[in-house]
Design goal:
The longest helix is centred in the middle third of the chain and has 20 residues. The chain is built from eleven helices and ten strands. It has a six-stranded mixed β-sheet, sandwiched between helices. It has a four-stranded parallel β-sheet with strand order 5-4-3-6, sandwiched between helices. The structure holds pyridoxal-5'-phosphate (PLP).
Length: 352
């Protein structure tokens, strides 16, 4: 029998845990399908929260263990990961440098200054803007060598905190959900999650398999990833690769390829580019649940969930959990995408 060995990995405390598990009562009724629930990782507590905080508990501990005093990471100009990394560094007394390539074709007046980028600077990051991903790789190598030259010790965190160490945050989160669901006597049949750099998804797959093998809880939902970055085949291959790396790190033996489910139908024309369905989904969550989603990740994912409910993909007796991974600050730089502003008495569906 496989036991949970997460205790062997160094970890710092950054995250409000457990995050709430809530019922979406009005939206379930409105959509008329299965019972919908939300796991509130937008409430992880560090500088507006989000899923990267769980990863950073393990990644920052690794940085400190290696004697680093400066973290360097990469992300899009409106990266939630970079904002949470900067906040974690501030809290732990480390310096932080960010390399921010342009990843999305979306632009607005505040995209280059507001939202997450404003918070990065407020939280004390040194920011290096790069033209694209190739340029960012060159800039980050240069930043690393400059840091060494001045006598500091850098620790590099890949984009999205997407290493097996980062994924440990979501192996642990699967256990957290299983415990909560048991307490609430809730059977989770399906779980819908955003697939971006793929380690949140991968960590959950490994987490639920470790729960199944240990027989600690009866919690084995199908995990449906909605890709907001890669096309389907690339996302599938990346999640599977991250699952293998994470399983190896925790010492779990299983072939989990078939458990990886990814849809890319809700990506639209590209990463960070608004879709009508996203606008509708964000508006629905706001009006029926008072819940703020984001335009880049959770809004598109939620549009997938809404569409699957409408298609009759889920049985009405099933329980479906939406894992909210955060991203709230980006909402403010996408205001233009929501123009003209929805009138308060217009149904959200009208905007689709
Ligand atoms: C980074 C991010 C994701 C995707 O998580 P990955 O582990 O990169 O797949 C989802 N939602 C939000 C809000 C994010 O910032």
């Amino acid at each position: 029998m496989w036991a949970m060995h997460l205790d062997q990995f160094p970890r710092v405390k950054l995250c409000h845990r457990p995050t709430p598990l809530e019922r979406m009562e009005r939206l379930s009724e409105h959509l008329g399908g299965p019972q919908l629930f939300v796991k509130r990782d937008d409430c992880t507590g560090l500088a507006v929260g989000g899923n990267k905080t769980r990863k950073l508990e393990f990644l920052m501990a690794e940085a400190i263990e290696q004697g680093a005093n400066t973290v360097v990471t990469i992300g899009g100009v409106q990266s939630n990961h970079c904002r949470q990394t900067t906040a974690a560094a501030a809290k732990l007394g480390l310096k932080c440098e960010l390399v921010l390539p342009h990843l999305s074709r979306y632009c607005s007046e505040s995209y280059e200054t507001g939202g997450n980028l404003f918070l990065d600077r407020l939280l004390g990051a040194e920011v290096h803007i790069a033209a694209d991903v190739e340029a960012a790789a060159i800039v980050s190598r240069d930043v690393m060598s400059q840091i060494r030259k001045r006598g500091d010790v850098p620790f590099f965190i890949p984009a999205g905190g997407s290493t097996a160490t980062g994924a440990l945050g979501y192996v642990d989160a699967a256990w957290e959900l299983a415990r909560q669901a048991a307490e609430q006597q809730l059977r989770v049949d399906h779980l819908v999650i955003t697939t971006g750099s793929c380690t949140t998804h991968a960590g959950l797959i490994v987490g639920f398999e470790s729960i199944a093998q240990s027989e600690a809880f009866d919690c084995d939902p199908s995990v449906i990833g909605i890709s907001v970055y890669h096309p389907r085949e690339k996302a599938l291959a990346t999640v599977r690769q991250k699952v293998r790396e994470t399983a190896q790190l925790v010492g779990l033996e299983a072939d989990l390829d078939d458990q990886v489910l990814v849809r890319d139908d809700y990506l639209g024309s590209g990463y960070g580019e608004p879709t009508d369905a996203m606008i509708e989904a964000v508006t629905l969550a706001a009006r029926y649940e008072g819940l703020l989603l984001d335009p880049v990740y959770t809004g598109k994912t939620f549009s997938g969930l809404v569409d699957l409910v409408r298609q009759g993909f889920f049985d009405s007796s099933e329980n479906v959990l939406f894992w909210h991974t955060g991203g709230t600050p980006a909402l403010f730089v996408y205001r233009d995408a929501f123009e003209p502003s929805p009138a308060p008495d217009e149904p959200a569906e009208r905007f689709a």
